Structures are given as C-alpha cells and as structure tokens.
Amino acid sequence: MLAAIRRSAVLDSSGEFHIVNFLARADSLLGSRNHVRPDVTLVTQSTANHLHYLVALSERWRGPLAVTVFAPRQHLALVVEVLVQLRRCVPALSPGSHQPPDTANILLPQDEVSSGGVGGASPDTATPVSPLGGSSCDSLAARLQRSVPGPDNYDLGVSYPVNLLRNVARRNALTEFVLVLDVDLLPNDGLHSMFVAFARENRLFVESHRDDKTVYVAPAFEVREGVPSPRDKASLLQRVEAMDARPFYLELCWKCQKHTDYEAWQREPPGDRLAVLFEVLWRDPWEPFYFGRNSAPFYDERFRQYGFNRISQVGRPA
User: Fold this and answer.
1) How far apart are CA 41 and CA 179, in angstroms?
2) Which of 86, 87, 105 is nearest to 96 (CA)?
3) Measured between alpha carbons, how far is 48 from 46 in angstroms, rounded to an integer?
4) Contacts of 283 (CB under 8 A, 6+ apart)
5) At what angle do helices 140-147 and 53-61 cross, to 10 degrees?
6) Concatenated DSSP letters for 195-210?
7) Where is the stretch described as Disordered (predicted)?
8) How far apart are CA 17 and CA 12, in angstroms?
9) Which phi and psi (to 5°) does residue 203 adopt?
10) How far apart are CA 230 and CA 177, in angstroms?
C-alpha cells in the first residue's frame, strides 16, 4: 500500500506537499467522484496521535465523514495501519456499512516523497507497523490513544498546514453541505440526521436555493477534563449548570465566539429538531462552527498552525 501511495500522490499548488486523495472510501462512493449528494459531510483533519477521536466522532455523527491526515515520513506506515484498523473495527467507518460514505485522505511533506520517504523509509526512521497490540477491535479508541505516539502539531518539524488539510477533505466531500470541525470536537448525538431533516424542511437542497450564502451556526462548548461529553442539549445544560461545561473559548478568545449569543441559545428549551433561533450578520473576529454549502470559498492555505485560520474563510467574499 505504501508504494501505491507514492504512485498516487499529487503535488499541491504550493509545491510543498503531496496529497493522496481517497486513500480509503466507502463502497457507495465508487464511480461517483463528480456526483454531489443532497446531504452534509463532517469535514475534519488530524495527525496520527489524534486519530482515536474518529471512533467517538463517527459514532456520534453517523453520516458522511471526510478526514485528511497529516503524515510526515516517520508516521506514514502507522497512519495507514490505524486507518485500516478503524475501517475494520468501527461500524460507522466500515466500507461495508450501511452508513453514508466516508473518505480518508493523506497529506505528506513534499521533500519526504521525493527523497523516497513514502514506501521507501528505512527501518531505523520509519514507525513500525502494527503497534496496536493485536487485531482485536475491543477498546480500540483507548488502545489507539495509548499506543500511537506523536508530537503535538507544533512539534512536527514543519508548520502544520491546517487550512490545506481542511480544503483537501472538503474537495473530497461529495455533498452539498459541510460541517468543518476539529477532530477532538464531538457533535451531539444524531446531529447529521437532524440537519438533513432541517435542510429538507426548508428546501435547502433545491436548485433555486443553491446560491444562498447563509450558514447555520452550531454553538460549541468545552467540557471539564474527565467529565463525560454530553450527548444532547438537555445533558449539556445540566453540565453548564454544574459548571462542568462552558461556551467554547470563553477564556481563550471570547471575542471570537460571543456573537453566537450563547445565553439566547441556552434559554431556548431542548427539542428533537433544529430550527433557526435568530439571524445575525458576520462580525469581526467571529469564528463560529457552522453548516455551510461546500461551494463556499475554500480556506486560505497560507495559514499554518492555529490562530485565526478559520476566519480567513469566513471573511472572504464569495
């Protein structure tokens, strides 16, 4: 498989990275590369040591998922092995699953491809395959978290190309809408089906609405370490009341999130369907998480690492 990756890798527009599109994809995507479905894809990006988050994320989402994995030379074999294990063990990621399509893509630094790092890494520099303690699917997420080493994104030896990773996943998301999240953010249970129902009720998939530039903001919260992640709004509000959860970036960058108006959202009673609570124009420096059309502008790939990288897309004219 590593040799196949080397053959299929294509250079990105900057000339700094090689992209492997559709390293893994659901059987239902075969032959449908140019077909866009009336659906929504969760788009994310990761490094090897964060791939364990895909287990809970895919089980919560239960819909199309597109992920791009950043794989420096020393992590490539491990990334491939982990993706194989995930597709074998996690029903929502399985190619034989009745779940909607998922895709996995890989991004590699260009010099590591040209120097033979893909498929040609020497034993003393390549991460050994199968460090996962056998082929059992039991407690896979916990075993991945324990067994898969990897530095933080700031310690990879190359600036983490977060916006390029997002764009690669978006280009391989074959649905009309996307929800772009970091891999360690969990959607509430069943959010995919709730948004699809909302989109159908409001005729968002019909041709006459496809030029609409409205996006649908989803409030995000952060939970105290060690506290189980709530699965729905009712349990989330209980966590907030107990001071075990709070609005996302409340301390780190409140000006980046305050226009979501968390207080208004928290006052609205929980329900089993999505609805628009209020409308607001974008304001600088708001960086919300939102459902938007995949025809929207792509992210500015000059941004690396983290910090005001998503705003580069929100603030761009269509």
Assistant:
1) 6
2) 87
3) 7
4) 259
5) 150
6) HHHHHHHTTTTSGGGT
7) 109-131
8) 6
9) 55, 40
10) 25
Query: pLDDT digits over 65-104, tens only?
Result: 999 999 988 888 899 999 999 999 998 888 765 565 678 9
Half-sphere exposure of 117 (CA within 13 A, CB side): 21
* pLDDT the model gives residue 130: 56
In angstroms and rounded to an integer, the radius of gyration of the C-alpha atoms of the chain is 20
Position of tokens 């709070």?
Answer: 246
How many helices (H) and strands (E) would you count in the chain?
Answer: 11, 10
CB 176 within 8 Å of CB 195: no
* 21-42 burial: b if 16+ Cβ within 10 Å, else e: bebbbbebbeeeeeeebebbbb
- Take residue 248 and report the two structure tokens written for it: 């996302």
**Residue written as token pair 């690396």:** 304
Strands 65-70, 102-109: pairing is parallel
- Return the percent helix, strand and coil in the chain, to nearest 5: 35, 15, 50
Please classify residue 241 by burial: count the beta carbons closer than 10 Å to its beta carbon, then call 0-12 exposed, 13-18 middle and 19+ buried: exposed
The label of the residue with tokens 């898969």 reads 148
CA-based torsion, 175, 316, 290, 145: positive or negative: positive
Q: Quick count: other Cβ atoms within 10 Å of Cβ 131?
A: 16
- Separation CA 301–CA 309 (nearest Å): 9
Locate tokens 């030896």: which residue? 157
CA atoms within 13 A on the CB side of 317: 0
* Burial category of 244 from C-beta neighbours within 10 Å (exposed 0-12, middle 13-18, buried 19 and up): middle
